[in-house]
Design a protein that fits this description.
A 7-stranded mixed sheet has the order 12-11-13-14-21-20-19, sandwiched between helices. Strands 5-4-3-2-1-9 form a 6-stranded parallel sheet. The chain has a 6-stranded antiparallel sheet with strand order 10-23-24-27-25-26, covered by helices on one side. It has 18 helices and 27 strands. The protein folds into 3 domains: 327 residues, Glycosidases (TIM Barrel); 194 residues, 3-Layer(aba) Sandwich (Rossmann fold); 53 residues, Immunoglobulin-like, CATH 2.60.40. It is globular. It is α/β, with parallel strands linked by helices and 659 residues long. It binds alpha-D-galactopyranose (GLA). This is Beta-galactosidase. It is an enzyme of class 3 (hydrolase). It holds the Pfam family Glyco_hydro_42C. Belongs to the glycosyl hydrolase 42 family.
């Protein structure tokens, strides 16, 4: 399988989405000059170029792209060439309305924006395959081509008729018989029993809550249907260029794609990373995105396909990045394993919906602060390239378990609390590890966990039998596990397990009876000995062999276990406030033999090890001194560091042990 090194030739990729079709060709010359000044070695071209390439059905306008590819090659800049299939030209919707997706109310998503394609439309798929085929045939041998980028942020749901047909086919594949489907969906409830496959619909707008398993399966199906589109295009380009890697960019924490399943079908995993510069924990969110993507790549290469050099334009209020933040977050991506640091987009647009979204070259042009910082980042990444090439993050001994099925099932109507948001819970636990300076990986609950010293389940409402057996075997084999509340409640069909929690898990954690769930209101806190819990609490009776490490204090649950332990298995029936979760988790991690990347770090400083290098990243504004025992060289400054390094606002150091 081709890897990123084939594309990078040993360099960290640096560059971004480039939309030359938005500019007169004189500007291209200017672009090249500035790209070279900034050390740009990679551009992603063609993401939204379908109407330029195929202005009328079947036509081909490749002239501009030929000239662009040649220009990039002449200037030593590699091209990640995108298939343009995320945004069909207006003629397609006009001539073939069935290529337009419908929402759950039956409303059409019209052209005029983007991503208005019906994933299961045969006509859409035919046109998408044809343009992909022709692009691959024409540019497969072009020396500028380094990678294929399929579509963009696959994200369309479709409740329309062709999607309904495809959904039924998918269900037939999963269940075989209607009886099996009726059983899995529990259709005895509310008179929903199906007598014919034709009666089954995507979960369209209904009078009252839809069947939850139908909704769950529709989400599974959507991820698979989009994946079929991806795989079809991937196979076309791979047939032409078996040695050119293929990717498609993820949105992190996006419901529509089961990233575990998708990542296994890509040569290179890539992600679009947009933490909010105003978020005091933006650095933590970036770390989470990197940890998640690195883990999805499962030891393979991965890239930040997009980040913003300044503001985005899709939040309520869109803040610029203060000086130094773009550099800090770019170095963080490399620290956490990225082999590419790229942006949306190269040159800020003057027209269209994203004209206020930043670019590497902002409206202020080359004299603007944004471009000046981009130049510095390009130069520093070039310095690091050789040392980080082919290296991996080390010391990531903790696995945080993450699963789309659990997310899909837990977030539905009819649940006990609308306050429990799965990504927010995962983020709270990752934050605790980040604050404890423990490098985390992510894993699927059915993955082999034996390499990890500690396994953390922030919450997995749905767990398959295989996953449960996997966890039990992991602990039996000497592993330590910590679980958050509302875990192991449902089976693969979203059927509540006997006792409200799987019996094997109750045995694992020492829970005799789970009497009731006690969800908390938005601002409510529950008293626990030594701290306060948020979001949730549970009325649990411990089994004899377990003990309540920390009881609830006050309120209805006074004296009952909030934190339970049985041997190496821990269960937290509430979400401790952040100031309590991290020391609790840090203590468990330490007992499990997990070491932080560096001891005695000042608050706000992140330390990560990649290969032989130690990255220090300061997310705060006040100057701090970081103790680093021994002699090192800072690759960014070329200076020696003896026993300590000083980091200013958003400062960073990349240390290599001095010989
Ligand atoms: C996504 C898309 C880009 C662009 C950016 C803006 O990541 O892939 O085309 O719209 O968002 O942040």
């Amino acid at each position: 399988m081709p890897g990123l090194t084939d594309a990078t030739r040993g360099r960290i990729l640096f560059g971004g989405d480039y939309n030359p079709e938005q500019w007169p060709e004189e500007v291209w010359q200017e672009d090249v000059r500035l790209m070279k000044e900034a050390g740009v070695n990679s551009v992603t071209v063609g993401v939204f170029s379908w109407a330029e390439l195929e202005p009328t059905p079947g036509a081909r306008e490749f002239g501009w792209l030929d000239r662009l590819m040649d220009l990039m090659h002449e200037n030593g800049i590699g091209v990640v060439l995108a298939t343009p299939t995320a945004s069909p030209p207006p003629w397609m919707g006009r001539l073939h309305p069935e290529t337009l997706p419908r929402d759950e109310d039956g409303r059409i998503e019209w052209w005029g924006g983007r991503q208005h394609f019906a994933h299961s439309s045969a006509v859409y798929r035919r046109y998408a395959a044809a343009i992909t085929e022709d692009l691959a045939a024409r540019y497969g041998g072009h020396p500028a081509l380094t990678m294929w980028h399929i579509n963009n942020e696959y994200c369309t749901y479709d409740w329309g008729d062709e999607a309904a047909t495809a959904f039924r086919r998918w269900l037939q594949g999963r269940y075989g018989t209607l009886d099996a489907l009726n059983t899995a969906w529990g259709t005895a409830f509310w008179s929903q029993g199906y007598d014919d496959w034709e009666g089954i619909l995507p979960p369209r707008h209904a009078h009252y809550m839809n069947n939850p398993t139908q909704v769950l399966d529709f989400k599974r199906f959507t991820s698979d249907a989009l994946m079929e589109c991806f795989v079809a295009e991937r196979d076309i380009v791979a047939r032409h260029t078996p040695n050119i890697p293929v990717t498609s960019n993820f949105m992190p924490f996006w419901q529509g794609q089961d990233a575990w399943a998708w990542a296994g079908r890509e040569d290179v995993v890539s992600v679009d990373s947009y933490p909010d510069p105003r978020d005091p924990l933006g650095g933590q969110y970036g770390a989470l995105i990197h940890d998640m993507t690195r883990s999805q790549a499962r030891g393979g290469p991965w890239m930040v396909m997009e980040q913003a050099a300044g503001p985005v334009n899709w939040r309520g209020v869109n803040h610029p990045k203060p000086p130094g933040l773009n550099r800090l977050w770019s170095l963080q991506a490399v620290a956490r394993g990225a082999d590419a640091v790229c942006y949306f987009q190269w040159r800020q647009s003057r027209q269209g919906a994203e004209k206020f979204h930043s670019g590497m070259v902002s409206h202020a042009g080359e004299r603007g602060r944004t471009f000046q910082e981009v130049k510095r980042i390009g130069a520093e990444l070039a310095l690091l390239s050789e040392k980080v090439a082919d290296t991996r993050v080390t010391g990531a001994d903790v696995a945080v378990l993450l699963d789309w099925n659990a997310w899909w099932a837990s977030g539905q109507d009819g649940r006990l609390s609308g306050e429990v948001d799965y990504p927010a819970v995962v983020r709270a636990w990752h934050r605790a590890l980040w604050e404890a300076n423990v490098t985390a990986s992510f894993a699927h609950p059915e993955h082999d966990l034996s390499a990890y010293k500690l396994v953390v389940l922030p919450q997995l409402y749905l767990l398959t039998d295989t996953a449960i057996d996997n966890l039990v075997a992991y602990v039996r084999g000497g592993g330590t596990v910590v679980s958050g509340f509302l875990t192991g409640v449902a089976d693969q069909d979203d059927r509540v397990r006997q006792g409200g929690m799987d019996e094997r898990l109750r045995k694992l954690f020492g829970i005799r009876t789970l009497h009731e769930w006690w969800p908390l209101d938005a601002d409510e806190k529950v008293g626990v000995e030594g701290f306060r819990g948020t979001l949730w609490s549970e009325e649990i009776e411990a089994a004899d062999e377990a003990y309540a490490v920390i009881p609830y204090k006050g309120g209805e649950l006074d004296g009952l276990p909030a934190v339970l332990r049985k041997g190496r298995a821990w269960y937290l029936s509430t979400l401790p406030e952040p100031a309590a979760l991290w020391p609790l988790l840090a203590g468990i991690a330490e007992d499990a033999g997990v070491r932080p990347a560096l001891d005695h770090l000042p608050a706000g400083v992140e330390a990560v090890r990649r290969g032989e290098l130690l990255f220090l990243l300061h997310h705060g504004r006040d100057t701090v001194t970081v103790p680093v025992p021994g002699r090192h060289r800072d690759l960014l400054t070329g200076e020696d560091v003896v026993d300590a390094v000083e980091l200013g606002r958003y400062g960073a150091a990349v240390l290599e042990a001095a010989p």
